[in-house]
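> forwarded from #structure-qc
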């Protein structure tokens, strides 16, 4: 502990802005550390949404696939997700290209880790279901049962102290006159889609939010029978070489499928329609299916970089408004940052220097540095998937070598890419494995010349 550092002590008050997973998971860990330290703390979460509402009003706009690695961590922390919250247990993934595909299986078959799909709010807009099954609401109630207070109001303003001995102030409420609360520590768990990002940036302590891009998430109702037959408890990941998509998947959720699209530019509704028109995608939908006139859709932001200085004295930001793994596992990034921030606050201190050294530095090492490698992997992936002849040749070769070393290696590589179970560093090492690349050289050369011959024939026929 550094000298003269700011510290949490008996009866300290903590305010958390945002009741999503990052906020609830920070609160859960804070309770653990408070008991370990032998101090009493008062935690208040501010959340303006009601997670029991359907559609965007109750949802934090997320694909809501809980990776096996996160599921294991939640279980270890005593957070056992009940069956009514789980909408599908995912048995595997299917990597689908324009002309072929390959079924992916868990590299470690003996592992009992689960991949599950949930809803962040109380299900899609227009859904006829009446029961409550919000994942975010479940986490929030989990910490409420542990003594956390929740105020379902909007935070209007945050006032940071002008000197080290003063506390921070939360100004909140739906209308004037607003309420005020003085607290020892403020945790920003509001996410990049919140207006609080701009409000905090305007406090001018050095915070710069992450760069973002707009994605597209859509909930499509289909019959349970069709979903079971067509998807067989598997997430379909599409590598079709279509512009502007960088990532596309369809996730089964009992009587709905969630379509997740991410590109190299902001996406719009027209991009969704173009994706759904692709023949390979149409094969996964009912023969006479048409996009409904009304459906649940959102265009949320995801991060492409990490924030600069998401902390100062008595204030720290967790979740994707701070640091998150790009394109993958936003929920797990929320878990990682919330745990690091809670540990820093209770074991080291709540000063600017403490958060810099014990929260931001290790978080950058775990996530931000790895994201640089992730950007490189995505560029390489774009290069390969846009060359259908190359993808087809490699998948055909590997499928013909079932249970061989190269088949198992490619499966592990693709599994880690689509699930986010491994770091980008590990994925890059797998992709550049010398033996793997050497075995694919003759396949690549053969496919390259076959493609040239086909192009020449097509050109001759057009003349």
């Amino acid at each position: 502990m550094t000298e003269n550092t700011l510290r949490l002590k008996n009866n300290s008050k903590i305010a958390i802005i945002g009741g999503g997973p990052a906020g609830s998971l920070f609160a859960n860990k804070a309770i653990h550390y408070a008991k370990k330290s032998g101090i009493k703390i008062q935690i208040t979460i501010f959340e303006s949404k009601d997670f029991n509402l359907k559609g965007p009003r109750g949802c934090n706009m997320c694909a809501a696939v809980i990776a096996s690695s996160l599921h294991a961590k939640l279980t270890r922390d005593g957070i056992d997700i009940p069956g009514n919250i789980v909408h599908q247990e995912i048995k595997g993934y299917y990597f689908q290209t324009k002309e072929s595909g390959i079924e992916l299986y868990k590299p470690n078959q003996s592992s009992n880790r689960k991949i599950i799909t949930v809803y962040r709010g109380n299900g899609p807009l227009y859904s006829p279901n009446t029961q409550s099954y919000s994942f975010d609401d479940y986490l929030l109630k989990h910490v409420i049962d542990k003594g956390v207070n929740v105020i379902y109001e909007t935070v209007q303003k945050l006032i940071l102290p002008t000197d080290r001995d003063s506390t921070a102030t939360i100004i909140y409420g739906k209308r004037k006159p607003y309420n005020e609360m003085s607290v020892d520590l403020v945790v920003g768990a509001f996410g990049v889609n919140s207006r609080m990002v701009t409000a905090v940036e305007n406090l001018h302590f050095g915070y710069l939010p992450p760069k973002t891009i707009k994605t597209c998430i859509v909930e499509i109702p289909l019959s349970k029978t069709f979903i079971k037959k067509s998807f067989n408890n598997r997430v379909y990941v599409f590598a079709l070489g279509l512009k502007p998509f960088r990532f596309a998947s369809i996730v089964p959720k009992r009587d709905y499928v969630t379509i997740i699209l991410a590109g190299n530019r902001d996406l719009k509704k027209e991009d969704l329609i173009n994706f759904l028109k692709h023949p390979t995608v149409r094969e996964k939908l009912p023969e006479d299916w048409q996009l409904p006139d009304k459906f649940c859709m959102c265009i949320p932001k995801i991060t492409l970089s990490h924030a600069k200085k998401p902390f100062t004295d008595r204030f720290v930001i967790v979740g994707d408004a701070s640091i998150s793994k790009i394109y993958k596992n936003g929920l797990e990034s929320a878990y990682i940052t919330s745990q690091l921030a809670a540990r820093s606050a209770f074991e080291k201190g709540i000063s600017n220097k403490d958060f810099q050294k014990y929260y931001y530095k290790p978080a950058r090492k775990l996530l931000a540095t790895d994201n640089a490698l992730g950007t490189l992997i995505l560029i390489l992936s774009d290069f390969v998937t846009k060359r259908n002849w190359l993808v087809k040749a490699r998948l055909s070769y590997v499928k013909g070598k079932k249970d061989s070393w190269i088949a198992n290696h490619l499966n592990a590589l693709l599994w880690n890419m689509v699930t986010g179970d491994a770091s980008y560093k590990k994925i890059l090492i797998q992709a550049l494995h010398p033996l793997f690349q050497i075995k694919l050289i003759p396949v690549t050369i053969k496919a390259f010349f076959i493609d040239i011959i086909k192009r020449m024939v097509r050109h001759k026929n057009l003349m």
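QC bot note: The chain has three domains: 12-88+119-211+306-371, 213-302, 383-462. The mean pLDDT is 90.
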